[in-house]
Amino acid sequence: MNQKEAGQLLDKYLQGKASQQEETIVQSWLMNQTARNHAEETPDEYILPSEMWSAVYQSIHQKKRRIWPRTVIAAAIAVIVFGAGLFYYNLNIDRGPHDQAVYKNDVSPGKVGATLTLANGKKIRLSDVANGAIAKEAGIIISKTADGQLVYEVKENNAETGNTNTLTTALGETYILTLPDKSKVWMNAASSLTYSATLGERGGRRVKLEGEAYFQITKDKAHPFVVESRGQTVEVLGTHFNVNSYADEAAITTTLIEGSVKVTANGHHQVIKPNEQALSSGGKITVRTVDVEEIVDWKDGDFYFNNLSLRNAMRKIARWYNVKVVYDASVPEDIESTGYISRTNKLSSVLKLIEKSGDVHFKIEGKTVYVSK
To answer: Tell me: the pLDDT tens digits for 188-245?
Structure first.
């Protein structure tokens, strides 16, 4: 691939016109350039200047059209193509015999799907019902939209209170929910949210979360919005935040995108600001500054690993592809993963990108991924 062809491909990607194969090529380069920029042994002429790299990364990650002049983008491509030689590094989709053997049982990515449990115990598989109204319960109309979202509307002033619904995503599923108060919730895989069907109509707004969800809460100063999860509560008036409360994670993490939230656990309180994350573990709460894009990557349909622990990365991957991960004893605990790739790719594409670090190797057998040194 020459410089002109590389530029044309990058342009197509930034304009959202690239095919899935072309997206994989760009994303593959992105992961390798990230790793190469952080590698101490990399020669200087192979490293994209930090200012240029940041802007190109932002363009690609946000999929915006060029935010830099063409001459600068061309210079970046020149480094990529002729300096590091990373842009098209043997990612021709024709796989060799080794890849075909290791990845012969490839796994498709997750999809939009969830199960709604009504107050009367009835379960509705949302992928099995047509768009439009799917249930009416105590003065509430529950509808499924054409783009795969669940929406609640209060149709009667005398709608009954106390009826609770639960929306559950299985491994490999994600869903978007609009609550009766117009708050919006993005649910990650293997998660559930329990809430009142008349939430916000009378009194407080309280939900219970297991797993992970991103909340976009409608402002209502008179009725705080409260999220309960594994002994922790998050109280807000109106804001955007992410809560990760998976049982297999070491701590419950609450990450604030905008506004203000109060996190409470075991009698301890912490108020966090945008770009801060509260970690709740052992009854204690600690706060740190984070890159929120790393936290909400799943909501945007991506995997974004920025020096993330390999085991943390693999837990995210396992939930989305509904696979079990088995580690060989030779795999160190402190290996990190760096890179960015869409969650629409098949499992083998994601694993091959991680393998490019040279630290680990993968083999897929059925629904199990084996990790070795």
So the answer is: 999 999 998 888 655 679 999 999 999 999 998 888 999 999 999 999 988 999 999 9
Fold assignment, 111-294: Jelly Rolls (2.60.120)
Q: Provide the residue ranges of all domains of the chain, joining segments of one domain with +.
A: 3-84, 111-294, 299-372
Residues 60-69 have pLDDT tens digits of 555 433 333 4
Please state, as a whole number, how many other Cβ atoms lie within 10 Å of the Cβ of residue 356: 16
CATH architecture designation of domain 299-372: 3-Layer(bab) Sandwich (3.55)
d(CA 300, CA 42): 31
169, 186 Cβ separation under 8 angstroms: no
Beta strands 173-178 and 111-112 are parallel
